[in-house]
Design goal:
Elements lengths: L1 E5 L3 H12 L3 E5 L3 H10 L2 E3 L2 H7 L5 E4 L5 H13 L5 E4 L5 H13 L3 E8 L4 H4 L2 E5 L2 H6 L1 H7 L5 E5 L3 H29 L7 H8 L8 H12 L15 H11 L5 H12 L6 H14 L9
Parallel strand pairs: 1-2, 1-4, 2-3, 4-5, 5-6, 7-8
Antiparallel strand pairs: 6-7
Length: 301
């Protein structure tokens, strides 16, 4: 299948490579010449504008957008809406707010263009392991692009979860849960780190807990790798960013009268991390870098 792809960042470039590995044809666009060159070396076709991308695809066309939420996504959708036509499909695989996705779906439907919101999880490891895809939108558009979803996801790793906006809603809650999981692991490791009399090896304990323990997980695997590289995380500043999904999840929980104290407190801990140093915040910063390539702020020597 031939598909256009917009956005060749840390995840986008890997997604293009995975599609190519599965025999799909990709025409890719990014503002960066270097990013385009890298995927071209993998076998993708590249263009230097959205107009050129649309011109390289034959109707009915499909374009996957993988750019930051907010203005970059809004601008990309609006430009593509003028370039595409009846029967074409736009997929937003970024972390957009689900209500924005509902609005965009309605606006595109008026132009007879389909819109799918595809919550995408997998980070830097998705190239080899596959991406979990939580997809919202009309079923006919979903079915048409199913070969793309099958290529990107591991076995049983994709699903249409509902109508327009549902995919990004499910991904929003997914990321809210991620906030809480990271916070729980981080606090536990801070308690272990503080118990100096035992000289505990956090990398060894991370590995141990993944052998039959009820708290075993991929995050613990990553924790083990983090602590092997830096047993006490001395060089990492305990600054933890948030990309919006945690705030949206808490806000939605409040609007639905659903108590979500653990997710809420984990969000507040991220805000606290910007005001003072803490080992738990260092753990989260290191883990986010490990699974998603998110920036780690280094302490000056």
């Amino acid at each position: 299948m031939k598909i256009g792809f917009v956005g060749l960042g840390k995840m986008g470039s890997h997604m293009v490579e995975r599609l190519l590995r599965h025999g799909h044809e990709v025409v890719a666009f990014d503002l960066s010449d270097e990013a385009r060159s890298l995927v071209a070396q993998k076998g993708a076709g590249t263009v230097d504008s959205l107009a050129a991308l649309a011109g390289k695809l034959r109707p009915p066309r499909a374009v996957w957008i993988m750019v930051p939420a907010g203005k970059p996504t809004e601008d990309s959708v609006n430009i593509l809406a003028m370039l595409l036509g009846e029967g074409d499909v736009i997929v937003d695989g970024g972390n957009s707010f689900y209500r924005d996705s509902m609005r965009r779906a309605g606006q595109l439907k008026a132009r007879k263009i389909s819109f799918l919101d595809a919550g995408t999880s997998g980070g830097l490891w998705g190239l080899e392991m596959g991406y979990c895809l939580m997809i919202g939108g009309e079923e006919d558009a979903f079915v048409r692009l199913e070969p793309i979803f099958k290529a990107l996801a591991p076995s049983d790793g994709y699903s249409r979860v509902g109508g327009p906006g549902a995919g990004h809603f499910v991904k929003m809650v997914h990321n809210g849960i991620e906030y809480a999981l990271l916070q729980a692991y981080a606090e536990g490791f801070e308690v272990l780190e503080a118990k100096k009399e035992f000289g505990l090896d956090l990398a060894r304990i991370s590995h141990l807990w993944n052998k039959g323990s009820v708290v075993r997980s991929w995050l613990l695997e990553l924790a083990g790798e983090v602590f092997k590289k830096s047993p006490h995380l001395e060089e990492i500043r305990g600054f933890v960013a948030d990309s919006g999904e945690g705030r949206w999840t808490v806000s939605e929980a409040i609007s639905l009268d659903v108590p979500a104290p653990v997710i809420t407190l984990s969000l507040l801990e991220r805000l606290r991390s910007r005001q003072e140093e803490s080992f738990s915040a260092k753990v989260i910063a290191a883990l986010r870098n490990e699974f998603g390539g998110h920036e780690v702020k280094k302490l000056s020597k």
